[in-house]
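Supplementary Methods S3. Input chains for the assembly prediction are listed below.
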Amino acid sequence: MKIIVCIKQVPATNEVRLDPVTNTIIREGIESITNPFDTYAIEEAIRLKKKLGWQTAAVSMGIPAVKEILRDSMALGIDEAYLLSDRGFAGADTLATAYALAGGIQKIGGGQLIICGKMATDGDTAQVGPMLAEMLSIPHVTDVAEIIRIDEKEMVCRKLTDDGYQEIKLHLPALITVNKEINVPGLPSMQGILDTYDAPVTTYTVSDLDVAPELLGLAGSPTQVVRTFIPNLAIDNEWLTGTVNQQTDALLSRLSEHNIIEKEG
Amino acid sequence: MASIKVLTDVCTGCETCVSACPFGAIALNDDGVAEIGDTCTLCGSCVEACPFEAIELTKDEEKTVDLSMWHGIWVFCEIANGTLRGVGPELLGQARKLADELHTDVTALILGDEGIKDFAPELIARGADKVLAAVNPGLQQLNDIAYTGVICELVQKYHPEIILLGATGFGRSMAPRVAARLRTGLTADCTILAADTENHLLQQTRPAFGGNLMATIICPKHRPQMATVRPKVFAPLAADESRKGEIIVENVQLPKDILVETLKSSTVAGEDVNIADADIIVAVGKGIGSAKNIALAEQLADLLGGAVAVTRPLVDLGWYGYAHQVGQTGKTVAPRLYIACGISGAIQHLAGIAAETVVAVNNDPDAPIFAHAHYAINSDCVDFLQTMVETIKEKGYKAV
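Predicted C-alpha cells for the full assembly:
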C-alpha cells in the first residue's frame, strides 16, 4: 500500500512588485518554498505511514531545482521522491499538469491514497487535485479537515463545506485535498536533514512516461493566458475624524447614502 | 512540440527580454546574447517585448474540435438541500449579457429530484431562455461523481459552447472533474467575463498571486469553454416574470460506481451563515484584543443581518473557526460592506476581500489596511464596535 503526496514549488511571497520603468514584474530575490497547503499533505502522509505502515512517496513537476523541496519532504519522513522534469511539461495549465502527474503516478505503480494540498498559493485554482482524480478514475474529496478512519478498502473523512462540515465515505484508491485544519506540520529532525541531504530523487522525462506528448505542457493546455496586468488597487479614501461617536455617526450616514443600511420604519 | 529560441545573430543584448520575463528565465550569456533557461514556461512575454524580433516561439498546430457544432451558454445552478444557491441567478444575469453579444441563448442547468422543476420560473425570470432539468432521485444530494457523469452526458448530447459554474465548495470540486473528463479548459474564480465577438470566444479574467496580478485567459480550440465564478461577483438581473422560456426535462441515469457517499452533513453553531454569501461582513483581527471581544462583532453583525469573519492569526489562536477565515488560506468574500476592525491589512488577508465598500477601523494610523478602505477610522476598534452597536440600536438602522 502506498500513499502519494503531490507537491508544488511556489514563490515564498505573492507580492508582485512592478519595475516602474519597464512596467514588468520583478522576480529577483524571491525564494521558492513548498506550497504551504502541501506541507499539511506531507504531514498527513507521514502520520498515516506511522499508523498504517504504508509506504510514502512525493511527486512534483517542475525544473530540476524542485528536487530541493522533494528532499525537504524526505527529511520529514517521506520514503521516495519523484520529479517530472522536461521542457515538454513546461507551460502546462491545470489540465496538462494533472495529466502529467497522472502519468507520473501510474509510472510508479499508483497509490492507494493520493494527498494534495487544497490549492497552490501562486495559481489559487484548486483544480489540479480533482482533475488528477478524474484522470486516475478514482473518487476524490476536497477540503478535508480530518481523516476519521481509514483501512485498505475505504476511508471516512470530514470535509469543510460552505455551510459547515460533512462526513464522507469513499472507496480506495482515492484522492483527497487537505486544508490546514487537518494537522500541525512538524519540522524535520537534524538527523532527517543529514540523511536526505543527498538523497536520490528519481527524475522522469516525457519519454519515460506512458503519455501522449501532445497532451502535455503548453501544447496540451486548452487554456491560454493572453494578457496579464497589475490591477489598480488604489481607491479614494475618506478619513472620518472626531470622537468615536462622531466617527460612527459619519459612517452610518455614509452607509445610508450608499443605500447599504436604512432607518427602520 | 512547442519551442522557443533566441536568434543569436539578431539579439543585441539589450536585456529588454530579461526584465520582461515574468519567470526570471532569461539572462545574458557570455557572448552577450539572451539565453532562455529551464524556468521558461513558453508564455511569450519576451517575444512581445523584444524590440528586434530576435525571439521565436513556435506553437504546435493542435487537433481541434469542430467548433461550429457548439452553441449556447449553460449556467449550472446549484440546488443544495432544496435551496437554489444565489450564485446561479447571478451567473444567469452575466450569461444573458454575454449571450446577447454572442447572439446565442442561455440555458439554466439544474440537477436533482422531481421537485427541482419548481425552480424553472425563477430561473427564466432571471435571464434563462431554457431550463434543462436533469432528474433522478439520486441527484438530490450533491455528489461529484454522479453530477460529473450526468453533466458530461448532457454536454455530449447538447454541445454548449460555454458552461459557467459558481465557485461554491461543490462547484470547485465538481467542475474540474467535468473539465478533465471532457478534456477541455477550465478557468477558476473569474472576476471578469467578456465576449470577444470577433473570434466568438469567452475572455475569462481572474486574479492570481493572491490578487496581485490579473490574467485574461481564453480557451480557443476546445469546447465547452468552462469557468467558475465566486458568489457575489456579479449581480443578478431583477426578476422579470413576463419573460418566456422553455423547460426541458431529462430523466437521467446515474453512473454505475459512485464510490463516494455523504454520511452526514452538519452546520456548526455560529457557522450557519456562509461568509461567502453574506452581504455585510464584520471582520476582526488581532487588534480586537481578546476572544471575548469578538462578541461585539457578533452583535453588530446580528444587527445588520451580516456575518463575522476573522483573520488567520485569530484562527491560529483558536479564537474563532476556520470556516470564518478570510484571506489567501481561507475564503474569498465579496460582500456589499466589509468592516475591518483591528485588522492591520496583511497582503494575505487583503487577497480574500472583494467588497464593494470597505471600512477600516484601527488605532494605528499607518496600518496598511487604510490604503484599501473607502472609509478610514483611526480609533480603537473595541470602542468603535460598542458605539456602533449602541447607536444602531438607538437610531434603529438595519440593512437594506
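The first strand of chain A starts at residue 2 and ends at 6. Chain A has a mean pLDDT of 92.
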